[in-house]
Amino acid sequence: MNNSLVSVIIAVKDGARFLAEAVNGVLQQDYRPLEIIVVDDGSTDGTAEVASSFEEVRYIYQTNQGHAAAMNAGIEAVAGEFLAFLDADDIWEPNKLELQVGYLMEHPAVDYVIARTQNFLEPGARLPASVTKDLSLTDSVLLSLGTLVARKAVFEVVGVFDVTYKHAKDVDWFIRAREAGLRMAILPDILLRRRLHGSNRSFSQQSRKLEFMRAVKSSIERGRAAGCPEGNAVCDDSKAAAEDCSPSS
Q1: How far apart are CA 195 and CA 87, in angstroms?
Q2: What are residue 149's DSSP bridge partners?
Q3: Model pTM score
Q4: Radius of gyration for the chain, computed over Cα atoms and rounded to the nearest angstrom
Q5: In principle, which of 17, 37, 96, 201 could form an S-S bond with 92, CB 3.0–4.6 Å?
Q6: From 5-14, 55-64, 230-239, the region with the lowest mean pLDDT
Q7: What is the 3-state secondary structure (H, E, C) of the chain?
């Protein structure tokens, strides 16, 4: 069977410091063919120069509209059958696409797949106040876009990312995917290395908590509007892992 094209979207703003390592991590993937689309969300540092130094990268610039809008611009530009996402400050394991795309090809009833994440502290950086030392050293299953590989058709069902979310667009998207009845698999492998460097966008805990609550409330309201008196069921990560399909199913 011929491999299908995978489109990798890297949305970035002022990420010149880490972008080259992220792109190299994609180029070192065991899987081919792939395309790399870097969407620059109004950077003022050397992001454009770093992205343009890779002949394999398709570079798209937009004025600053937010991370969700940048990822949506990438989705509009893709040619692949499968979509994957990577933040410029994170790193993939070399076998990520091979394992996840292989799983989707072997399990046509599964719509998208995630995997485990390992945090690591950038040398010389201080641990963010919102992250305990134990959390920084452990791996976990997160509803993380950095571990996601999805069939392109999934976005035709679920839609793209809601640009009104700054921190919880991933939570909102995964909730909508569950509402749509799509099937998720969780691989046991650590496939994403998430860099902690003190200025991570996701560590604004109060803002993320408020947006998470808004995403859950919106789900409940959609459920009630559809005639479900209890609203839509929203599961935490552990319940989702238990209820969704897994490599052993």
Answers
A1: 10
A2: 84, 113
A3: 0.83
A4: 18
A5: 96
A6: 230-239
A7: CCCCCEEEEEEECCCHHHHHHHHHHHHCCCCCCEEEEEEEECCCCCHHHHHHCCCCEEEEEECCCCHHHHHHHHHHHCCCCEEEECCCCCEECCCHHHHHHHHHHHCCCCCEEEEEEEEEECCCCCCCCCCCHHHHHCEEECCCHHHCEEEHHHHHHHCCCCCCCCCCHHHHHHHHHHHCCCCEEEEEEEEEEEEECCCCHHHCHHHHHHHHHHHHHHHHHHHHHCCCCCCCCCCCHHHHHHHCECCCC
User: Please, what sign has the CA dihedral across residues 155, 84, 203, 129?
Assistant: positive
8 Å CB contact between 54 and 36: yes
Residues with Cβ within 8 Å of residue 103, at least 6 apart in sequence: 110, 113, 185, 187, 247
Residue-level length of the chain = 249
Calpha distance 178→45 (Å, rounded): 38
The pair of structure tokens assigned to 194 is 């998430």
**What is the pLDDT at residue 5?**
97
- Maximum distance among all alpha carbons in the chain? 55
| Residue type, position 166, single letter | K
Which residue, 186, 8, 3, is CA-closest to 83? 8
Q: Which domains does the chain have, with CATH numbers?
A: 6-243 (3.90.550.10)
